[in-house]
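In response to reviewer comment 3 from the previous cycle, which asked for concrete evidence that the modeling workflow produces usable outputs, we include below a single protein chain processed end to end. The sequence was submitted unchanged, and the resulting structure tokens are shown without manual editing.
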Amino acid sequence: MCTLEKRGNVFVLAITGTGEHRLNPTLVCSLRSSLRRVREEPNCSALVTTAEGKFFSNGYDLSWAQKHRDRLELMSSEFRALVRDLISLPMPTIAAVTGHASASGLILALSHDYVLMRKDRGFLYMGEVDFGLVLANWFVTLIRSKIGSPAARREMLMKAAKLTAAQGAAMGIIDSAHDGPKETVSAAVRLAEELVARKWDGDVYAANRMVVLREVLDSLGSDETVEAVANQASSKL
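The workflow returned the following structure tokens.
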């Protein structure tokens, strides 16, 4: 489901395969397992997360969950745990978005400290309103903490705009746009190396991030949208 390699002091975590990288419990558990391995390393490291193929992640695996409330609860719970893991990780984190990032797939990218994206392919898309679904409170809390512009949030959440990397960079949703997947990952690794060179204490870095994102952490305890999704998911597939 994913691979983890170390390039000097930089970990590169890649979601493998050419599919949509739907965030079902199997993929999420694989990502969490990799993060546990990263956590075992000493200070002076950084993480880059990327994906193979046309998709960074196309969101929750609703075809797997369908109308099964228990599956939806598990999927939501495991994903929220993954976001909590990223927020508490004792090193800088960078998402290298090399394809489409939709719904919870975009939330995964935004859960990193920095977001870089290829500009020749892929959209940033929060399509809940298009599919008749209500946004989770914790999604919105995270988005507010990451995106300062109310106009940008309106485009994302209320208009369900499919945003290119260039548009995302101009709106402050991502940090920079790059020519292709290799260039995006290379830029992410270079940024990671610059951050590692600062020689920050990892535990202090994580503690500060947790203070900055305290409202997000507080919101991760529940997902009030599970029941609504359970009632609607199969008709929206």
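The two ends are 23 Å apart (CA to CA). We consider this sufficient to address the reviewer's concern, and the full set will be provided in the supplementary archive.
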